[in-house]
Amino acid sequence: MKKILTVVCLSFVMLCCTAVSVLAVGDGNIDGGGGGMDNGTSGNIWSPGNDGVRVTVVRASDYAVVTTPIDITNKPPLSSIYNFGKVSKLQYNNGKSLAPQQGGYKCVKPSQLMPTIISDKGNSNIDAIKKYFCSEYIVQMIANHTGMNYDILIGGGYKLLLEPIAYYKFEDVMIATTATEAAMYDEQISGLLRRRMVALSHQNLPLAMFLEVSDLGYPAWRGSTSKAASNADIKSSLGLGVVRFTELPESPEIVTQDYEYRVNTEVITTVTVSGGQSDPDNPTKVSFSIDEKTYNVGNVYYPQGDSQLAWVKWTTPDTEQDMVIHVSVKGPGGTDKTTINCKIVDLDKNPPPNPIADDRNEKFSSVSVPNRSEKVRADWSVWDPWWHEHWVWHSTGEDSGYWCDHGWWEFDLDKYYARFSANMSIRCDSKNPTASGGIMKSGYGINETVTASVSSNQSSAIAYPQTAVSYFPEFGYETYWRLLDRMKDGSSNSFELQNNKYSTYKNRTHFTPIWMPDGDYTVNTWAADSWTPVGMLSMNLTDSLTIKGNLWQDWHVAPLKP
Questions:
Q1: Residues 325, 338: Cα–Cα separation, whole Å
Q2: Does residue 424 contact residue 525 with C-beta atoms inside 8 Å?
Q3: Which residues contact 417 (CB under 8 A, 6 or more apart)?
Q4: pTM for the structure as a whole
């Protein structure tokens, strides 16, 4: 019986996780060590490749074992091998006793080869082990063989406990043991396993994998990574690893709004992107399909749980129309698509009719200047990621090792603004013979100048003022209007009335109606189309002249002298 127990209980190496994302399924926290091994004897020997991993699904909240463990190996031993059954380290630490048995051993041989778990030189490829056990392939396989629903398994409520297994001959009998089983059995047989196979049972097997960060109630290993460990250390801290799952990244979402633009105008179209995680390691990309052209916006970064504006600057067509902009976003968690409806309008289609000398409007009554939309300041922000370094020393021996950056992304919020200012002035037309300062007779024309400017600490994200349109009191500030010509481009633009086709001199003028009553003549101008990522800037402007008398008073009719 002593010999049988000896055969059943060797050691298993542990795999652990180190905040390394692999295939967006699991996170590994894994380190390992070990050293060289002697050749052994014919009755006590282990050959490289005769290893495996015991996998147990554990509930993250209370460390409860929720499935029967499975053993995975590239080289399945004979089913008659001595073993201790499918028991995990957690169960042993909770009081489960060793129960040796001969035969009935079952294991899973993966179609995709598992990397070396136990090395005879103590130099297993930990990165390869991490990638393998955190991959979608192996996690799906584990779900299938344990009967665990895959989506539930990776949903964040469960973890995988990994324990290396060695298949070896001890006292002329083939046995299969994890590291914990080997340590427990060695205690039962008064240290015989350690005396016969210390390089395997107490060094390379328990040191093949150990925790770098404490998890499942087990501490991170801070002891030697190249010397044989004690049974107590093996049972408390070695021969285990953990694969953790976080919830799959949310699919990104797009929030949009519809727009009204003017023809032939440089505009900005903006969406808000949220959901999932977007940083330089997991970038989000937004694409705008506009008028058969595609505009790609990359480097859309934001912290998890937050959002970011993404915008594109483009020029509208020169004809009125309704447009549909197709927007798609692709991020770590998937894609989202939506549309934006745009109405493109032409304001240069409704100038006042030709004034005539005998116009009358006895029903005219003055109205107040309307409150047109006005926005003179815009504020927006952009997340700016930066790497927070956190260097950790990884020992590979007593006097050797390497530094590894286990840092993470932090985000600064860069704030931007745009300020809009504008003013207007109207004056009596230069061809008005009887004007005096700001006083004129009705029937004559007026000239107008509008200046508009915008200042910003992110000039690449704005469009400068492009539109000024004037409305007049004789039309109740509606019905007819005049679109002004842009005379100067840049951060500070100027606008004037268009050449009037009814003017004898083709002046940039607007004729007041001859019937306009005496009093203030107030023109209303809307300065607009300075676009930012958070909408359009605009101002509602007014200026006035005084009407006193009418054009007919400048005419005198008398017979010619003989």
A1: 9
A2: yes
A3: 377, 378, 379, 380, 456, 457
A4: 0.62
Instruction: List the one residue out of 476, 560, 15 whose CA is nearest residue 244.
Output: 15
What's the CA angle centered on 49, arms 44 and 55, to 5 degrees?
100
200-239 burial code (b ≥16 CB/10 A, e <16): bbbbbbbbbbbbbbebbebeebeebbbebbebebbbbbbb
Cβ atoms of 499 and 516 closer than 8 Å: no
Q: What is the pLDDT of residue 556?
A: 61
Q: Which of 167, 125, 160 lies closest to 145, judged by CA?
A: 160
Q: CB burial class (10 A; 0-12, 13-18, 19+) of residue 104?
A: exposed
Q: What is the pLDDT of residue 28?
A: 64
Angle between helices 192-199 and 179-188 (to 10 degrees): 140
Whether 191 contacts 185, CB under 8 Å: no
Mean pLDDT on 531-559: 91
Nearest to 498 by CA among 510, 516, 511: 510
pLDDT, one tens digit per residue, over 34-58 is 655 666 678 899 999 999 999 999 9
Question: Which H or E element spans position 232?
Answer: helix 231-237
Handedness of CA 67, 68, 73, 75 (dihedral sign): negative
Q: Residue 342: left (phi > 0), alpha (psi -120 to 50), or beta?
A: beta
Tell me the C-alpha distance between 133 and 208, whole Å. 15
Is a pLDDT exceeding 70 seen at residue 233? yes
> What percent of the chain is helix, strand and coil (3-state, nearest 5)?
15, 40, 45
Q: Would you list the DSSP string of 105-144?
A: ---B--SSPPPPSS-TTS---HHHHHHHHTSHHHHHHHHH
- Which structure tokens are listed for 458? 């992110």
Joined tokens for residue 99: 């129960």
User: Which H/E stretch holds residue 389?
Assistant: none
How do beta strands 535-550 and 439-442 pair? parallel
pLDDT tens, 203-217? 999 999 999 888 999
Q: Give long-range contacts, CB 8 A cutoff, 24+ apart: 85-92.
A: 86/54, 87/181, 88/54, 88/56, 88/58, 88/161, 88/163, 89/161, 89/163, 89/178, 89/180, 89/239, 89/240, 90/56, 90/58, 90/63, 90/65, 90/161, 90/216, 91/65, 92/180, 92/181, 92/184, 92/235
pLDDT of residue 231: 96
Q: In what order do the strands lie in the sheet with 253-255?
A: 253-255, 266-274, 307-315
Angle between helices 126-133 and 136-146 (to 10 degrees): 50
Among the listed residues 366, 347, 373, 291, the one whose alpha carbon sits nearest the alpha carbon of residue 468: 347
Q: Residues 390, 396, 398, 399: is their CA dihedral positive or negative?
A: negative
Q: Please, what sign has the CA dihedral across residues 91, 93, 96, 98?
A: positive
Q: How far apart are CA 88 and CA 290, in angstroms?
A: 59
State whether residue 185 is helix, strand or coil: helix
pLDDT digits (tens, 9 = 90+) for 439-455: 999 999 999 999 999 99
Query: How many CB atoms lie under 10 A from the CB of residue 291?
Result: 13
